[in-house]
Structures are given as structure tokens and as C-alpha cells.
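Data availability (excerpt). The following record was deposited with the supplementary files.
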Amino acid sequence: MSRPTTLGNVIPPDLLLRAYATGVFPMSESADDPQIFWVRPEMRGIIPLESFRVPRSLKKLIRKNPYEIRIDTDFHGVISGCAEPAQGRKTTWINDPIRDAYYQLFKRGYCHTVEAWQSGKLVGGLYGVTLGRAFFGESMFTRQPDASKICLVKLVELLLERGYVLLDTQFTTDHLKRFGAIDIPQRRYEKLLAQALEGDAAFRDHVTARPS
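Predicted structure:
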């Protein structure tokens, strides 16, 4: 995993978009660390959309409609949820510069959220960046059983419906592998990314302008 020189505590939105277009993304050591560094993993995690699979038990739960699914209604709530301590994770890499940068992308239409709501409360969700026909998943969280998993299923349904061809997960976990996530060499990833950037897809009802 490559860790180039830290930028400091500001990530210009245009620079962030150009980084994604070249297969690079930012992280920090912890939420309290104001510094960020750029990452280009030697092995990249993706979920091939054509082979996405949903566990049988989750399909049964989805049919019961346990949560209301919303798109892009509470960016701050989702990124705050993703930054919360969770089982097996006492800290997070989502610091203030990362929050600010992705909020700027959200306002420009390049960052999106898929949210699970129950009784008027946000109980799970995920967020990521779109560019061309690629969706770059950043993080997800859950406060109720399987809420984030259902958001992932809804995300894939939307990506397939809207003509996306690449779902980048950055890394793979046992959790994501249940849905078909695989690791591929960075060189192969860059070829898939180049193909995804050749076209455009609309996550919502419009296609965002390409960054200069």
C-alpha cells in the first residue's frame, strides 16, 4: 500500500476528484489526526456488479421492508455514523479534513449517501463518490441489524439500473466477500477504472460535469 507525503489539513475538492480518477484515495491515521495521506493499494477491492450476491437470510429480511431507504438526505448524519466507534474498531480514519472534503463533493453532486431510516431515525447507511460510471465506496455503518447491508443491496440495484460498471470497495473484508467482493491487482483495477471513466452515469436525475 502506497502512502505518499501528507497534504496537511485541507483537501481541495478538484484535487480529490483527480485522485479518484487515477486510482488514489485519502485516509488519515485517526479522527484526531489533522493530517491525511494518499493511498494506492497494490491489491484493490471491488464488487463485480454482474456477480453481486445477496445472502438468502438477507433477501427474506428485505422482503419485510424493515427500513425506509433514502438517498442523499443526511450526509452529515451518515458520515458521522461511519466515524462512530464500532465492534472491532475503536477509532476511525475519518477526520475533519476528510469530512469537509466529501461534504464539498456532496454539494457538487459527486458524493452520495444511501440511508436506512426507522421511526424517523437514521439507523444505517453508506457513502461514496461517483465519477463517470464508477462508484467508489468509502464507508458504511449500522445501528440496527443488517441496516448497512440493506443499504449496500439498494446501492447495487441503483448502480445497475443507472448504468454503472465499477463498484470500488478499496479493500475487502469478510463481510464484503459475502456479497462477492474480490481483490484484484492495481494494474487490472486501473484498466477497469479507465473503462468506467469513458462514459457517464447519473446517480440521481442528472449527470455531473467532469472536474477540470
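Summary of structural features: The first helix runs from residue 13 to 21.
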